[in-house]
Q: What sequence folds into this?
């Protein structure tokens, strides 16, 4: 892998940028591998990278029905944070924040992680109770998270209106300074390039249609380009986890729903951090100047990657109430990803009842931020067959035992 | 570029606008782009990435370059109507569009190929991006926030029609005419242009409505079309339409395609249709010496329009070798030099001064032509956005080298140019067919017959070639996003070789014009770089909105109307008494406390608590959920819905009951009263009242359709005034209450109080003698006042939810909203007495059984007494495990109790009941507090006071 | 937003409805509890869903709908 740098740019400028090496190969699909990872999104690619880097495994396939990062990795609103409620999630994402800070250096690819901090606006007493509880747990885990007055929050978010009429007053705010954003595609590309350089085959435009079982264990995968014999299959997909797992007779506690995102026309910098009003609207400003905006998931299950206008209206109504100064800014684009909502809105990073089938699914609206930490922990699981402490709590068995891990800090929570 | 007016502006239409501080003479109502061109303003803005000088290149929605800032926001200059006094500024430049400091960046263009961000700005350990980022951010972005005082508050309109026709060109008008032949069919036509181009034929049809200056921005599932009326007025006249039609005809036309060569973004390089439209519609010549470059025969009609309008066309550069005789004759007749089989290699000058052309097959033999305007006509690209938004498929049409709609989608017909039928007659025929078909689908016409065949195009109609440069210099495919052909080739070369990866790596198509100008050429460059057909390359997904929608137009009303709050019959009284109102869930607002004089929250709460414990209190509990469950099987139904047995209740009595989720978690609690053998009166929590409507109807209709039972929500019909405290009976007596003599704890009966018919229950949430008085909402204000008067001598005090919170903690009552977390079931919460597991079946039974078989490590509700009795533990504080690194529970509710003279708390603690009597450490900001685990009832544990 | 074909009220805006999605049965046995409570087919294609016409007739409806196109089956 040739190193990218300002010097490489200058050198290549002299030759008209005709000598850059390919970022990754386009290998043909082989008939067998040691491990097949289904899904070339952030999670699948990170898993491949850490399998190679940390466990020295090379004979690995990453296979995707579309293009690299073309699922929810390239559709999400890139909020990276650790201000969760449940300790296993907090610990995973706190480790994740550390890995995000190191990512560009580790991968030799600028993922543009930008530690901007996040403001949450609190409008009800019930939510204020919830954040006080989170503050206590987050401080124990060493995650900075403070409760601010509305005026203190406005110092971080000058466009916030505190004086106009509000249906619900802003009672308080929270400040999570280590939260950040990154360039979503670059994360997938950085991991893809680094994994490819370690010898991993990334095959795009090849759909996995079924997981073939032999008795209680995995025999391989059926794809649109033929059968691949492989003893370990690692699912790192969204939207199709249920469909694929059921080909191996595994039923998951997952429902697929659209999650929409919106961007505005580009504007000069006016918002330096992430702002979230839980359940109402969240936004940040990209390096291009666009406001990247989201709300909650659509209310009806669907595999279709497009959203309802009514959801846009709801989210934008909340946006304009909090930030009336944005009323004359234009919406440029709306789109949706199909997210897999797990019953308890915590993910499943787990072995499955079928030997050799591993699950890294059900991340709901929160998968992007978990790419490095989730990918690394999943790689450990696939390589060693034993869950690390980081992901023990995300085992599928929690449902068998009737002990789901209800999380209330996700963007897609519905109650 | 030296534009001028072809005819002078009538005195009455003359207005003056300013652009970057410079006054310009304008014609009222024309677009600012026309004004700029007429005044010879060649450089009107700077490009997004390289800050290159840019001018107007297109007309209407096809103009990619120039956004301007006004007090109302940022608008495309080609859409912004001119009014007297309009002040506009160019964007993305400083100090002005003509002299922009940041254009120095252009000198480093060679260091900024596609994806250059990803390759640098990292620093040795990848941590330097935060240093570079602010400077990079400052250079990006177009426009700033408008500094108007008032936010945009636009009105929304809703419409239903039978046939909606989108687009008022030849195909759209033909479609609207055909669709409206049956006068019963309600037909709407929306047209993006402000000027009236609608045919006379539609004018006298009462069943046709036309919206001008309205742009359809999106098509959504179920035939919903969203459109913006007067998109650029930026004030109350802007309106968002939500139109639902039985069937839709899309007749949105097509965009002209530019060519790709060095300097094709220079001010003066324009689209031919735009140059013709400014001349014919706005009577503005874009320049004094125009050269046209074309690759198709249809373009000659536009050149003829230009000539006829009096614009000098000096030369035509035609990529084709075989040019139709009539077009050769046209050129000769008008003295226009014709260069067959030539393409443009490069353009020079800012603004445009000359172009270099060369034969396509011998590129060395270049010729230079002087011109101030280059008009490009690279064929047409159908506007398939609306077809695609809701999931319509596309196919690549080889003949026109463009993507066209592939078949019918959701009763939505594309017709005319957006369906690849460009010539007027063919478009009209297509529109007529689509109008008939849409009308038929909506039930207003007979079968429309078959679709007219596409007319065979004349020989050598279009030569499918657009890149004519020699590969040196900057040849743009997407001027709005500053993406060059070389950027796309680099992306393909590096492996970003599908259209989606290329788009994301280069940002082609992601600028404000969303690829309308450049997408097809980007696909063409990619396909050639990969040596595949454009059809195989495919296209990216079209996303709504087609045109920017101001957030203020999308938003519904904010403030008090955003989620209208619900008021009880007593809200006005509470507010008049200066109660501090809290959000109580389900959009209700309730008094938190009633501060007197200079009391703060704590003081008011203590006073209110003392009143309840020592005298009497009264509170407005009207938001509490209320239901009547009626029918022969009402008891059996409640036994199924509740985990508490209720079917054995005697009429006139009530019982505390629990509802569980199917997975065993506590869902809701409340008191269920039996009024008669077949009639129950049920109260639920405020927050779950709505969810209970759903749950009860679900249980009745889906889970137990065998039961004869009816569910009637009565939350808003009954006001609920709760009178409690040791003097409550005295207050009732003074209020002339008529209640049964033998009216014990948990009884319910109808009676009269202060002259009002009421239903009274001996239940409450404070642990004192308590009368829950249900009165018709209309009677509540008078009843409340009369009770307060009657209670004056007994110290009757209105109390709010803060005092209620303290009183219920003292009693150890569970508050579903406060104390439940995660998987907590009735056993965990200490409510096993209300879980009658021996019943045959109820919702949640299997889960409770499972939990009982696996009891270890569950969160159990306990009381917590801080070691420092004066210290109130913070709600939410974590209870630590012995190693202090992890938690095993948290404080769910906490308060200061005047009654007990100490702080009290409740918590959920892992295996909590095993720890009763032991100590726990509780995490505080900057320290630890110690507390003793106790049973969670602190006051009157036997419940003697409430029975008394 | 789709129009929901309510058999009692006619086609109505989706906003009037609550969609419960795939209908979980009421579990009656201990053994199948986890599958009943949490397992979802989550079909990509047509499945019968439960819809509640909250702001209409308040009837629970069993409606077949295609999750791959969002269309209600005829």
A:
């Amino acid at each position: 892998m040739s190193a990218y740098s300002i010097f490489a740019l200058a050198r290549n400028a002299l030759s008209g940028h005709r000598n850059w090496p390919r970022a990754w190969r386009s290998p043909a699909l082989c008939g067998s591998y040691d491990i097949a990872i289904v899904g070339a999104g952030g999670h699948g690619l990170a898993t491949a990278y850490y399998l190679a880097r940390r466990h020295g495994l090379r004979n690995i396939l990453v296979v995707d029905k579309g293009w690299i990062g073309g699922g929810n990795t390239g559709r999400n609103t890139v909020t990276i944070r650790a201000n969760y409620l449940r300790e296993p999630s907090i610990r995973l994402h706190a480790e994740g924040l550390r890995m995000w800070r190191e990512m560009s250096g580790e991968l030799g690819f600028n993922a543009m992680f930008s530690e901007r901090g996040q403001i949450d606006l609190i409008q009800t007493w019930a939510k204020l109770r919830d954040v006080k509880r989170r503050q206590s747990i987050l401080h124990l885990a060493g995650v900075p998270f403070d409760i601010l007055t509305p005026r203190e929050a406005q110092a971080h978010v000058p466009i916030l209106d505190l004086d106009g009429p509000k249906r619900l007053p802003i009672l308080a705010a929270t400040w999570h300074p280590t939260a950040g954003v990154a360039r979503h595609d670059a994360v997938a590309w950085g991991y893809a390039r680094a994994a490819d350089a370690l010898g991993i085959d990334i095959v795009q435009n090849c759909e996995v249609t079924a997981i073939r079982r032999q008795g209680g264990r995995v025999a391989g995968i059926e794809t649109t380009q033929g059968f691949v014999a492989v003893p370990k299959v690692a699912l790192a997909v969204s939207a199709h986890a249920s469909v694929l797992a059921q080909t191996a007779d595994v039923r998951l506690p997952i429902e697929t729903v659209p999650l929409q995102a919106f961007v505005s026309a580009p504007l000069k910098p006016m918002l330096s951090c992430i702002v979230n009003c839980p359940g109402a609207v969240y936004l940040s400003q990209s390096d291009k100047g666009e406001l990247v905006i989201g709300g909650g998931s659509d209310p009806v299950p669907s595999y279709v990657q497009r959203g309802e206008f009514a959801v846009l209206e709801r989210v934008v109504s909340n946006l304009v109430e909090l930030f009336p100064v944005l009323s004359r800014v234009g919406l440029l684009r709306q789109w949706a990803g199909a997210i897999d909502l797990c019953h308890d809105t915590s993910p499943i990073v787990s072995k499955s009842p079928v030997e050799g089938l591993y699950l890294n699914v059900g991340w709901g609206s929160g998968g992007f931020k978990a790419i490095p930490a989730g990918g690394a922990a999943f790689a450990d699981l696939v390589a060693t067959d034993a869950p690390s402490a980081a992901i023990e709590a995300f085992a599928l068995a929690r449902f068998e035992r009737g002990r789901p891990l209800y999380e209330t800090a996700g963007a897609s929570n519905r109650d | 570029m030296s534009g001028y007016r072809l005819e002078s502006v009538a005195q009455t239409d003359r207005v003056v606008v300013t652009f970057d501080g410079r006054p310009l003479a304008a014609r009222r109502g024309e677009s600012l782009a026309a004004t700029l061109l007429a005044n010879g303003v060649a450089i009107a803005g700077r490009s997004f990435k390289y800050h290159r000088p840019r001018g107007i290149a297109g007309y209407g929605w096809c103009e990619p370059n120039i956004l301007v800032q006004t007090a109302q926001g940022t608008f495309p200059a080609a859409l912004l109507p001119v009014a007297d006094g309009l002040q506009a500024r160019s964007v993305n430049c400083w100090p002005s569009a003509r002299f922009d400091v940041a254009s120095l960046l252009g000198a480093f263009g060679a260091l900024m190929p596609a994806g250059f961000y990803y390759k640098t700005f990292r620093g040795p350990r990848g941590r330097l991006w935060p240093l570079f980022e602010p400077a990079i951010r400052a250079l990006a972005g177009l426009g700033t926030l408008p500094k108007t005082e008032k936010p945009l508050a636009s009105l929304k309109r809703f419409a239903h029609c039978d046939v909606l026709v989108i687009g008022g060109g030849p195909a759209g008008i033909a479609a609207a005419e055909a669709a409206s032949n049956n006068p019963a069919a309600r037909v709407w036509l929306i047209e993006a242009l402000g000027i009236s181009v609608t045919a006379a034929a539609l004018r006298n049809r009462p069943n046709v409505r036309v919206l001008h200056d309205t742009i359809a921005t999106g098509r959504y599932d179920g035939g919903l079309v969203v459109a913006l009326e007067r998109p650029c007025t930026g004030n109350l006249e802007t309106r968002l339409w939500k139109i639902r039609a039985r069937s839709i005809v899309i007749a949105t036309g097509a965009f002209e395609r530019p060519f790709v060569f060095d300097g094709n973004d220079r001010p003066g390089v324009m689209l031919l249709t735009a140059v013709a439209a400014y001349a014919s519609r706005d009577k503005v010549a874009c320049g004094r010496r125009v050269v046209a470059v074309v690759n198709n025969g249809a373009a000659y009609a536009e050149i003829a329009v230009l000539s006829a309008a009096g614009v000098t066309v000096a030369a035509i550069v035609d990529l084709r070798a075989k040019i139709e005789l009539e077009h050769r004759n046209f050129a000769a007749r008008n003295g226009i030099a014709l260069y067959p089989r030539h393409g443009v290699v490069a353009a020079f000058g800012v603004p445009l001064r000359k172009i270099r052309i060369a034969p396509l097959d011998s590129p060395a033999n270049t010729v230079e032509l002087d011109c101030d305007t280059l008009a490009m006509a690279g064929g047409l690209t159908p506007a398939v956005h609306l077809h695609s938004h809701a999931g319509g498929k596309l196919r690549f049409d080889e003949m026109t080298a463009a993507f066209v709609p592939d078949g019918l989608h959701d009763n939505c017909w594309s017709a005319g140019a957006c369906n690849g039928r460009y010539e007027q007659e063919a478009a009209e025929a297509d529109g007529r067919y689509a109008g008939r078909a849409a009308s038929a689908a909506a039930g207003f016409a007979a079968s429309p017959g078959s679709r007219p065949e596409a007319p065979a195009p004349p020989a050598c109609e279009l030569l499918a070639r657009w890149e004519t440069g020699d590969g040196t210099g900057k040849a743009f495919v997407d001027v709005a996003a500053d993406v060059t052909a070389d950027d796309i080739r680099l992306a393909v070369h590096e492996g970003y070789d599908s259209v989606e990866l290329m788009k994301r790596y280069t940002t082609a198509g992601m600028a404000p014009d969303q690829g309308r100008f450049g997408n097809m050429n980007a696909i063409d460059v990619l396909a050639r770089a990969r040596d595949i057909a454009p059809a195989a390359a495919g296209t990216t997904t079209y996303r709504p909105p087609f045109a920017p929608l101001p957030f203020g137009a999308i938003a519904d009303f904010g403030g008090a109307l955003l989620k209208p709050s619900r008021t009880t019959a007593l809200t006005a009284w509470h507010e008049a008494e200066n109660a501090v109102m809290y959000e109580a869930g389900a959009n209700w607002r309730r008094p938190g406390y009633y501060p007197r004089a200079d009391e703060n929250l704590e003081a008011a709460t203590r006073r209110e608590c003392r009143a309840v414990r020592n005298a009497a209190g009264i509170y407005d509990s009207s938001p509490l959920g209320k239901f009547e469950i009626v029918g022969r099987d009402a008891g059996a139904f409640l036994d199924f819905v509740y985990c508490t047995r209720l079917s054995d209740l005697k009429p006139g009595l009530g019982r505390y009951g629990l509802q569980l989720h199917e997975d065993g978690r506590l869902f809701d609690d409340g008191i269920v009263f039996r009024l008669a053998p077949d009639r129950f009166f049920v109260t639920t929590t405020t927050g779950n009242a709505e969810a209970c409507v759903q749950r009860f109807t679900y249980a009745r209709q889906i889970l137990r359709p065998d039961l004869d039972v009816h569910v009637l929500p009565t939350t808003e019909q009954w006001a609920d005034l709760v009178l409690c405290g040791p003097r409550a009976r005295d207050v009732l007596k003074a209020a002339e209450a008529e209640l049964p003599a033998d009216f014990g704890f948990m009884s319910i009966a109808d009676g009269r109080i202060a002259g009002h018919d009421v239903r009274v229950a001996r239940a409450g949430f404070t642990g004192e003698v308590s009368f829950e008085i249900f009165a018709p909402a209309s009677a509540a204000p008078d009843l409340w006042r009369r009770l307060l008067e009657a209670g004056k001598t007994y110290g009757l005090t209105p109390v709010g939810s803060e005092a209620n919170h303290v009183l219920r903690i003292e009693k150890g009552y569970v508050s579903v909203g406060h104390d439940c977390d995660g998987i907590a079931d009735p056993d965990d919460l200490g409510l096993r007495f209300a879980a009658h597991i021996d019943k045959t079946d109820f919702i949640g039974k299997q889960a409770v059984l499972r939990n009982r078989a696996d009891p270890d490590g569950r969160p159990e509700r306990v009381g917590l007494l801080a070691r420092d009795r004066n210290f109130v533990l913070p709600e939410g504080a974590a209870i630590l495990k012995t190693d202090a690194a992890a938690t095993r529970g948290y404080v769910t509710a906490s308060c200061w109790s005047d009654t007990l003279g100490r702080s009290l708390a409740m918590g959920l603690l892992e295996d909590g009941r095993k720890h009763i009597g032991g100590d726990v450490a509780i995490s505080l900001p900057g320290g630890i507090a110690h507390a003793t685990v106790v049973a969670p009832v602190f006051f009157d544990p036997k419940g003697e006071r409430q029975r008394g | 937003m789709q129009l929901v074909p309510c058999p009692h009220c006619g086609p109505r805006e989706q906003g009037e409805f609550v969609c419960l999605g795939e209908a979980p049965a009421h579990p009656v046995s201990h053994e199948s509890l986890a599958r009943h409570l949490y397992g979802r087919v989550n079909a990509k294609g047509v499945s019968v869903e439960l819809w509640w016409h909250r702001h209409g007739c308040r009837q629970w409806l069993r409606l077949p709908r295609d999750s791959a196109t969002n269309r209600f089956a005829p």
User: Anything to note?
Assistant: Confidence is low (pLDDT under 50) at residues 411-415 of chain A. Residues 87-107 of chain A form the longest helix (21 residues).
